[in-house]
Amino acid sequence: MTLTLGIVGPEDLVHRVAAVGAPDGSTALLPLPYRHESETVEIIEGADARVDAFLFTGVVPYTIAADAGALTRPSMYVAYDGATLLRALVELLRLGHDVTRASIDTLRRADVLETLTEAKLPTDHVSVLPYRPGLTSDDIVAFHRAARERDDCRVAITCLGSAYHRLETEMQVIRLAPSRYSIRAALQALVLTTSGRHAGDAQVTLGMIELPEPDDRLPGDLVTLGGSLAALPGGGHLVVTTRGLLEQATGQFTRMPILDRLAERHPAVHIGFGVGRTAADAETLARRALNRAASVGAVAGVVSMAEDIDIVFEPAGDDGPLPERGQDDLPLLARRVGLSPQTVVRLRELAETRPDGLTTHDVAEHLDVQQRTARRILKRLERAGLAAPTGSQQQGRTGRPPTVYRLHL
């Protein structure tokens, strides 16, 4: 099966990604250029049915799309690393510009300072504006202008095309472009993620539902899951579907609408879904999920997967947004992902110190657990809608770059 990746960004960077090419013959690249980053959401919505995943040429359009809730496909962005900045600095030095007085946007402050220090360049008069959600082209332009007036910065280095075009007639400005290595690494990571998602969509999923009395409306409640419904000995019900349909019906495992509907008609409802590679695996996991649901309370649903992942759902509230962060929602968050409240607290603390995202290594180090355990924890959070991959950490690494996650705890 051929995968189609939509490449979203300014026209020149989209063509730069296309020039690097797809990582294998089973992947096609669809250019989706915009004239201004404000067109990002419109372009994504127009192309959603034609692509399997989106690759953004930078963090700015990716964040715009994510904040608008427009990412319904696997999505990543090409990271601008220290090597990208170093190449720009070398070019500026070759042209005779003073790079010790520069203003730099979008990149992380730590990456900028580390790159300059390794190049044995002073950092005292370098101004940095790291990217954050909500940062606009106007904000970036104002930052560079202020740095020129306040700190006598001689060169502006920007990652945003719209800012570059506004500043190029006012000052010496250079626009960063991602390296071929960063592009290739992002393409490979996105292909792996998308292929894995497609394989997961076809995984066998069995559901078991226990109700205190017969319910003629149950088939209608299950229509979004497709598949088939059969009676089990003892009055239970068996649902046969796929992981892809279950993810769609539960909003990527963030809510279980059928649980709320059944809870309106029955005093006790227990639902257990098992997701496995074979029917036998799915059945074992479904029974585990059903037993877990019964232990949670009178009305509960659980989705069980491999690697000891259990996602718990309760009625009255799972259809809406999660509660605001606070001590009161700790038991709910902990139940949803099968972690202790103490672990959730420590993960919150870690997330607050990593505003740009964190990796499996960060979690393992902070919780003092093995990498395998940390990876399982992040997967639990992702399945419960409490963590989202935002890209990959490529600088200074060989092999497959680790995925960067942003936690929503």
Strand content: 15-25%
Mean pLDDT: 84
Question: Strand arrangement, largest sheet?
Answer: 10-11-9-12-13-14
Low-confidence stretches: 317-328
By CATH, the superfamily of the largest domain comes out as Reverse transcriptase/Diguanylate cyclase domain
Taking the alpha carbons of the first and last residues, their distance comes to 37 Å
- Helix share, percent: 40-55%
Structural class: alpha/beta
CATH fold group of the largest domain: Alpha-Beta Plaits
Number of strands: 16
Largest sheet: 6 strands, mixed
Shape: elongated
Provide a count of the helices: 16
In CATH, the architecture of the largest domain is: 2-Layer Sandwich
Rounded to the nearest angstrom, the radius of gyration is 24 Å
User: What is the count of structural domains?
Assistant: 4
Walkthrough of the structure:
The protein has four domains: 3-79 and 181-199, Rossmann fold; 82-177, Rossmann fold (3-Layer(aba) Sandwich), CATH 3.40.50.2300; 202-313, Alpha-Beta Plaits, CATH 3.30.70.270; 338-407, Arc Repressor Mutant, subunit A. It has 409 residues and is an alpha/beta fold. The longest helix is centred in the middle third of the chain and has 22 residues, at 180-201. 42% of the residues lie in helices and 22% in strands. Helix 6 (137-151) crosses helix 7 (161-167), helix 14 (341-353) packs across helix 15 (360-367) and helix 15 crosses helix 16.
